[in-house]
Design goal:
With 594 residues, the chain is an alpha/beta fold. The protein folds into 2 domains: 3-330, ABC transporter transmembrane region fold (Up-down Bundle), CATH 1.20.1560; 344-422 and 537-594, P-loop containing nucleotide triphosphate hydrolases (Rossmann fold). The protein has helices spanning 3-14, 18-54, 59-111, 115-119, 125-167, 169-216, 218-223, 227-279, 286-303, 305-326, 386-393, 416-421, 437-442, 450-459, 463-467, 482-496, 512-526, 538-542, 561-567, 570-581, 584-593, and strands at 347-355, 361-370, 375-379, 401-406, 409-410, 423-426, 500-504, 530-534, 546-551, 554-559. The strands form 2 sheets. The protein has a 6-stranded mixed sheet with strand order 6-7-8-3-9-10, sandwiched between helices. Strands 2-1-4-5 form a 4-stranded antiparallel sheet, covered by helices on one side. A hairpin with a 2-residue loop joins β9 and β10. α14 (450-459) crosses α16. It starts with a helix and ends with a helix. The structure holds adenosine-5'-diphosphate. Adenosine-5'-diphosphate (ADP) binds at residues 119, 356, 358, 360, 362, 380, 382-388. This is ABC transporter ATP-binding protein. Keywords: ATP-binding, Membrane, Nucleotide-binding, Transmembrane, Transmembrane helix. Pfam families: ABC_membrane (PF00664), ABC_tran (PF00005). It is a multi-pass membrane protein. It comes from Sphingobacterium bovistauri.
Amino acid sequence: MTISNLYKNILPFVKPYKNLIFIALGLTVIGSFAAQINAFVLKYTVDKISDLLVNKTPLNQGLHIVGIISAILLGKEIIYSIVQFGQKFYGEKLKIMIARDFSQSIVQKILTYRMAFYTNEENESGKLQTRIDAGISSLTRLVQNFFIDILPLFTTAIVALVFMFLANFYVGLVGLITVPIYFYISQRQAARLSGFRRNMRYFRENKNNQIINLIDSITVIKSFVREKEEAARHQQIQYDMTENQMSTRKTSYIFDSLKSFIEQIGIVLVIILTAYFVLDEQMTLGAIMFHIMLFNNVSAPIRQLHRIYDEVNDALIYSESFFVILKADDQKESTGTYRPTHITGAIEMRNVNFEYPNGISALHNVSMKIEPNQITALVGLSGAGKSTVINVLDKFYYPSSGQIFLDGVDLSEYDTHFLRENIGLVLQKNHIFKGTIADNIRYGKIDSSIDEVKRAAMKAYIHEQIIELPKGYDSEAHLLSGGQQQRIAIARMFLKNPPIIFLDEPTANLDAIATEQIKNSLDAIKVGRTVVIVSHSISQIIDASHIIVMEKGRVVEDGTHEDLYDLKGVYHRIFSAMANSLNLDKITKSMQDN
Ligand code: ADP
């Protein structure tokens, strides 16, 4: 990312705050002139006092000078304080507003991105979060630098330089020559540091991601007693980071010393030149202080240059990935425009091949028909591609080739949001949001009344348990057990009331009692809809009117339970394994004994 690109990218965010910027700029100009007053006052003071000394004037006759000086300095300080307050306040306001806009726009944008964006390894949650945070904070700092720090400093420097030239051409020249040397050194410093900064970004992203992974895997780490190994792995990245930080500091300090040296040479030159002019009686004594203060007004802002360079560089590096995320228009979900008044739910996949973005080929020439208003079970071993079928049917991913039809219309022609509004998805572990039970159910239909919420909960067979809680529907949903949470998800689905329902291993995470408890609610949600269920539960599979068997990304068998069982193929094998694992003989015997 180049500075001009960065500028172009930031401009739309700054534009709405034009007025704020004009106010800040106006105050900046006033402040820059006010900042020079001290130099003039000091010159006046030294000259007047040296006159008094030379003329041996009594102290009481010189007192009015002190009065004038105090009045001017006080007046200047009052104006300067007001200006500074305004500058800081409006600058800060600008910064806060822009930070808010950056955050909001990136959140709005990534919500429109397709699933592949989120499953991309580069966008793992820790990395994405660091990239967004670092991008926003460096961009906000850049805006702060520019409108709160740089502009006032540079305007002050330029005004001071003009006064130096007005005072004496040669003195002005010393000031003017120092500036480009300083610029050059700062620019070299920034160039040297940019590599380190890029590494730092990489280390930060990985470190944060590693910490998140560590917390996620804490049970496994502890059960295998791998704390030492994990700590050692983390230490490596810390060491690399430290090394990088030390190199950054070393480079910075070398360049800082060099710049300090140049500045001192400038001051010495100003003193020598002015002393010469004073001795030559071309100037008064006060000129020495006057010039040094003016030179200081030039060099102080320039001294900040490396910080500004650093931060611009930071902004270039961090904003690069921030804007890559913000402007990833190719990641936007595609959508058609077809919005039929009614969906029946006849689904057909024809010769569908699908490859995940990481290259894993998950579906091979898959063809299947899912009849409307029936229950179709997808059966197969883990990794067979069952969830992938649901992913492509929900338009979370797009087939690499082949076609999918819903009610005879190609899925790609459907308005994606409309399609998803007509599909209900119940997963292995349904996401329960932080908040009340009522709000979690209401997620299925945001504007539903509490009565509708209750009716949905009744249909999902969870109402009775909710009202027994001390706070009823206002209880925290996270407190519910896995089985109860699953029924909340089903209640949500009743409110959404879609004609098509995909159930992806809805009971896989539940114990036998919970599975038994949610059976009623699952049965209720299936009625009168097109249902596709992925399950390893025998009872749910034999409930289906149609079974599709998958193996290694292919459809290998297709028919009713009886047909497939008699076929003595893959289904027979899987079904028998499931039945055997239940140890039916013992179960039957135990139940008979009772
Ligand atoms: P099933 O639901 O039958 O257990 P999946 O559809 O989840 O199988 O997986 C099919 C294949 O696709 C597997 O090899 C799996 O590793 C791979 N896969 C699943 N999800 C992803 C993903 N998000 N990115 C890459 N590969 C994936």
